[in-house]
Design brief:
194 residues, mainly beta, elongated
Protein backbone atom coordinates (compact mmCIF):
# COMPACT_ATOMS: atom_id res chain seq x y z
CA UNK A 1 0.00 0.00 0.00
CA UNK A 2 1.15 3.53 -0.72
CA UNK A 3 0.81 4.92 2.79
CA UNK A 4 1.74 8.43 1.73
CA UNK A 5 -1.35 8.82 -0.43
CA UNK A 6 -3.57 6.20 1.20
CA UNK A 7 -3.21 7.49 4.74
CA UNK A 8 -1.73 11.02 4.68
CA UNK A 9 -2.50 11.68 8.37
CA UNK A 10 -0.57 8.56 9.40
CA UNK A 11 2.31 9.40 7.06
CA UNK A 12 2.50 12.99 8.37
CA UNK A 13 2.56 11.70 11.96
CA UNK A 14 5.44 9.31 11.23
CA UNK A 15 7.40 12.05 9.45
CA UNK A 16 6.96 14.36 12.46
CA UNK A 17 8.78 11.95 14.78
CA UNK A 18 12.49 12.09 15.57
CA UNK A 19 14.74 9.29 16.79
CA UNK A 20 14.89 9.50 20.57
CA UNK A 21 11.41 11.01 21.02
CA UNK A 22 9.61 9.55 24.04
CA UNK A 23 6.11 8.41 23.10
CA UNK A 24 3.35 7.18 25.40
CA UNK A 25 0.48 4.89 24.63
CA UNK A 26 -1.48 1.79 25.51
CA UNK A 27 -0.64 -1.80 24.63
CA UNK A 28 -3.47 -2.94 22.35
CA UNK A 29 -2.26 -6.31 21.02
CA UNK A 30 0.41 -8.85 21.89
CA UNK A 31 1.56 -11.20 19.15
CA UNK A 32 4.31 -13.85 19.11
CA UNK A 33 6.43 -11.47 16.97
CA UNK A 34 5.88 -8.24 18.91
CA UNK A 35 3.57 -5.78 20.62
CA UNK A 36 1.29 -3.13 19.10
CA UNK A 37 0.83 0.17 20.92
CA UNK A 38 -1.90 2.77 20.31
CA UNK A 39 0.07 6.00 20.69
CA UNK A 40 -1.56 8.88 22.57
CA UNK A 41 -0.66 11.48 19.95
CA UNK A 42 -0.85 9.20 16.93
CA UNK A 43 -3.68 8.44 14.54
CA UNK A 44 -5.33 5.05 14.29
CA UNK A 45 -3.63 2.65 11.92
CA UNK A 46 -5.94 1.60 9.05
CA UNK A 47 -4.90 -2.09 9.10
CA UNK A 48 -2.91 -2.77 12.28
CA UNK A 49 -4.03 -2.69 15.94
CA UNK A 50 -1.76 0.29 16.69
CA UNK A 51 0.62 2.67 14.97
CA UNK A 52 3.40 1.89 17.47
CA UNK A 53 5.26 -1.42 17.36
CA UNK A 54 7.67 -3.03 19.82
CA UNK A 55 9.72 -5.84 18.31
CA UNK A 56 10.67 -8.62 20.73
CA UNK A 57 14.32 -7.52 21.11
CA UNK A 58 13.16 -4.04 22.18
CA UNK A 59 10.84 -5.18 24.98
CA UNK A 60 13.40 -5.87 27.70
CA UNK A 61 17.07 -6.41 28.48
CA UNK A 62 16.04 -9.49 30.42
CA UNK A 63 15.21 -12.81 28.83
CA UNK A 64 11.55 -13.78 28.56
CA UNK A 65 9.56 -16.63 27.08
CA UNK A 66 6.53 -14.68 25.94
CA UNK A 67 5.93 -10.95 25.31
CA UNK A 68 3.08 -11.10 27.87
CA UNK A 69 5.78 -11.77 30.49
CA UNK A 70 6.85 -8.14 29.94
CA UNK A 71 3.65 -6.22 29.08
CA UNK A 72 -0.11 -6.74 29.20
CA UNK A 73 -2.92 -5.55 26.94
CA UNK A 74 -4.26 -2.31 28.39
CA UNK A 75 -0.96 -1.41 30.05
CA UNK A 76 0.29 2.16 29.69
CA UNK A 77 3.85 2.37 28.37
CA UNK A 78 6.41 5.05 27.55
CA UNK A 79 8.83 4.11 24.78
CA UNK A 80 11.63 5.64 22.79
CA UNK A 81 11.03 6.16 19.07
CA UNK A 82 13.67 4.24 17.11
CA UNK A 83 12.52 4.97 13.56
CA UNK A 84 9.68 4.53 11.09
CA UNK A 85 8.89 1.33 9.26
CA UNK A 86 7.73 2.80 5.95
CA UNK A 87 6.63 -0.59 4.59
CA UNK A 88 4.08 -1.13 7.39
CA UNK A 89 3.65 2.56 8.28
CA UNK A 90 4.38 2.09 11.95
CA UNK A 91 6.54 3.73 14.57
CA UNK A 92 9.23 1.31 15.77
CA UNK A 93 9.61 1.67 19.53
CA UNK A 94 11.84 0.46 22.34
CA UNK A 95 10.96 -0.09 25.99
CA UNK A 96 14.37 -1.41 26.99
CA UNK A 97 16.42 1.66 26.08
CA UNK A 98 14.60 3.54 28.84
CA UNK A 99 15.71 0.93 31.41
CA UNK A 100 19.08 0.37 33.03
CA UNK A 101 20.97 -2.37 31.19
CA UNK A 102 21.56 -5.07 33.84
CA UNK A 103 24.68 -6.33 32.05
CA UNK A 104 26.25 -2.85 32.12
CA UNK A 105 25.37 -2.52 35.81
CA UNK A 106 26.91 -5.97 36.45
CA UNK A 107 30.09 -4.99 34.55
CA UNK A 108 30.33 -1.72 36.49
CA UNK A 109 30.31 -3.48 39.87
CA UNK A 110 32.22 -6.67 38.98
CA UNK A 111 35.91 -7.41 38.46
CA UNK A 112 37.51 -10.34 36.68
CA UNK A 113 38.26 -12.94 39.32
CA UNK A 114 35.27 -12.06 41.47
CA UNK A 115 33.52 -15.11 42.88
CA UNK A 116 29.74 -15.65 42.83
CA UNK A 117 27.33 -18.38 43.83
CA UNK A 118 24.89 -19.12 41.06
CA UNK A 119 22.28 -21.59 39.95
CA UNK A 120 22.84 -23.96 37.05
CA UNK A 121 20.21 -22.93 34.51
CA UNK A 122 21.12 -25.11 31.52
CA UNK A 123 23.52 -27.99 30.93
CA UNK A 124 24.70 -28.15 27.31
CA UNK A 125 27.54 -29.81 25.39
CA UNK A 126 29.39 -26.47 25.27
CA UNK A 127 29.22 -26.02 29.04
CA UNK A 128 26.90 -24.94 31.81
CA UNK A 129 24.90 -21.73 31.91
CA UNK A 130 24.78 -20.27 35.40
CA UNK A 131 22.21 -17.73 36.60
CA UNK A 132 23.98 -15.15 38.76
CA UNK A 133 20.79 -13.23 39.58
CA UNK A 134 19.52 -9.85 38.35
CA UNK A 135 19.06 -11.26 34.84
CA UNK A 136 22.75 -12.16 34.39
CA UNK A 137 23.54 -15.61 32.99
CA UNK A 138 27.12 -16.68 32.32
CA UNK A 139 28.72 -19.66 30.62
CA UNK A 140 31.26 -21.98 32.16
CA UNK A 141 32.71 -23.54 29.00
CA UNK A 142 33.24 -27.30 29.10
CA UNK A 143 37.00 -26.78 28.90
CA UNK A 144 36.82 -24.90 32.24
CA UNK A 145 35.03 -27.75 34.00
CA UNK A 146 37.76 -29.77 35.68
CA UNK A 147 40.05 -29.30 32.68
CA UNK A 148 37.89 -31.29 30.30
CA UNK A 149 38.18 -30.72 26.56
CA UNK A 150 35.76 -28.20 25.02
CA UNK A 151 33.44 -30.94 23.76
CA UNK A 152 33.58 -32.85 27.05
CA UNK A 153 30.45 -33.96 28.90
CA UNK A 154 28.89 -31.85 31.61
CA UNK A 155 26.83 -34.61 33.23
CA UNK A 156 28.19 -33.82 36.70
CA UNK A 157 25.88 -30.82 36.95
CA UNK A 158 22.12 -30.62 37.39
CA UNK A 159 19.72 -27.81 36.58
CA UNK A 160 18.92 -25.98 39.82
CA UNK A 161 22.21 -26.89 41.48
CA UNK A 162 24.01 -24.08 43.35
CA UNK A 163 27.68 -23.73 42.38
CA UNK A 164 30.56 -21.33 42.99
CA UNK A 165 31.95 -19.61 39.89
CA UNK A 166 34.47 -16.92 39.10
CA UNK A 167 34.01 -14.20 36.47
CA UNK A 168 36.56 -14.81 33.71
CA UNK A 169 35.41 -12.22 31.16
CA UNK A 170 32.57 -9.80 30.47
CA UNK A 171 31.97 -8.92 26.81
CA UNK A 172 29.57 -5.98 26.69
CA UNK A 173 29.55 -5.73 22.91
CA UNK A 174 28.50 -9.35 22.39
CA UNK A 175 26.56 -9.41 25.67
CA UNK A 176 28.35 -12.48 27.04
CA UNK A 177 29.70 -13.38 30.46
CA UNK A 178 32.27 -16.16 30.70
CA UNK A 179 32.78 -17.93 33.99
CA UNK A 180 35.20 -20.42 35.46
CA UNK A 181 34.76 -22.90 38.27
CA UNK A 182 36.21 -21.33 41.40
CA UNK A 183 37.96 -24.60 42.33
CA UNK A 184 40.19 -24.27 39.27
CA UNK A 185 42.22 -21.57 41.09
CA UNK A 186 42.79 -19.90 37.72
CA UNK A 187 42.38 -16.56 39.47
CA UNK A 188 44.29 -17.35 42.67
CA UNK A 189 45.93 -14.24 44.01
CA UNK A 190 43.42 -11.83 42.38
CA UNK A 191 42.25 -9.37 45.00
CA UNK A 192 38.48 -9.43 45.31
CA UNK A 193 36.54 -6.29 46.23
CA UNK A 194 35.39 -6.11 49.83
Amino acid sequence: MDWQSGSPELWAFLESLHRGDILSGTVVAIERFGVFVALDDGPDHPTLPGVGFLGLPELSWRRFDDPSDVVQVGQRVSCEFMGSDTHNAEARLSLKVLELDPLQAFADRTVVGQEFRGTVETVAPIGIFVDLGDGIVGLVPSREIDGRPAAGPTEDFEVGEQIAVVVAEIELQTRRVFLSRSESNQYAGVALPT
